[in-house]
Amino acid sequence: MSVWLPSAPCTPGACVEPTGSAAAVPRAVLRIAGVAVLVLTGAVLCPLGGRIPAGLVGRWCRAIVRAAGVQVRVTGTAAPTGGLLLVANHISWLDIPLLAAVRPARMLAKTEIRQWPVAGALAARAGVLFIERDRLRALPGTVARIARALRGGAAVVAFPEGSTWCGRAQGRFHRAVFQAALDAGVPVQPVHLHYRVADGPASTAPAFVGEDTLFASMWRVATSRGLVAEVEVRPVIPAGTHPDRRSLAHAAEPAAHEPDWTHAALVAGTTRLEPARTPQTAEAA
């Protein structure tokens, strides 16, 4: 195990609020079954790749989140076409379909996922770029693969914190993935993800942290009531506006972490980030 391996102090026992009751079990079973059907449908259609319209992929991704019983609200700046690095804070397994709903993209994921039953094979077929987080020597090769995908016009989704956090705490952005954007000469678009109870406070129920299992996290979500996933798409940081990966990560981090991102950007000195001029249509399921 490398000392570099990103980790978070969040654990299910310390950070995640309990949800549901015995009465919620039938609803939870139906929700998880609905998610499974949608995921398997996507797996069947996966070989079609780029022949599936981006709008249809986005609707499918939102449908997965809705099937789990979570409302979806997307606001902010529409993602541009062409090579693009999408970076976001990382809380839940729900983050993946939510970001794919912003723009269909290749995901950057830890290599352990490749070994997961069923999910690993599906991820590989979907074009996931795997990173060996415990082998620092493998990092340059991973950065080169990401840069090739970006040069080819793909969007790539990365979670630079390197691990999931509960949503009340957050980690610093690691810089390596930003080198790929610099090498490919493509823009970076930060996204802020937030989960809460409808018309209420923030919720840690969707968190997938520490020794949590995927099923345990899915069950918490499925037994919850009134969960809302808020996806705030920040303005693009254009290619060439930052000279190195450190300053680029420093510019993207507050935009992905802070709800009041304009103030955070000004404090960080990243005044090139401007408020969105054309908001995306907000959607509530």
UniProtKB/TrEMBL annotation:
Biochemical pathway: Lipid metabolism
GO molecular function: 1-acylglycerol-3-phosphate O-acyltransferase activity
Annotated region (Disordered), positions in chain: 240-259
A Pfam family reported for this protein in Swiss-Prot or TrEMBL: Acyltransferase
Keyword Acyltransferase: yes
Swiss-Prot/TrEMBL keywords: Acyltransferase, Lipid biosynthesis, Lipid metabolism, Transferase
One GO BP annotation of this record: phosphatidic acid biosynthetic process
UniProt KW Ligase keyword: no
Classification via CDD domains: LPLAT_AGPAT-like
Domain of life: Bacteria
InterPro entries documented for this protein: Plipid/glycerol_acylTrfase
Domain called Phospholipid/glycerol acyltransferase: residue spans: 84-196
PANTHER family assigned: 1-ACYL-SN-GLYCEROL-3-PHOSPHATE ACYLTRANSFERASE, 1-ACYL-SN-GLYCEROL-3-PHOSPHATE ACYLTRANSFERASE-RELATED
Protein name: 1-acyl-sn-glycerol-3-phosphate acyltransferase
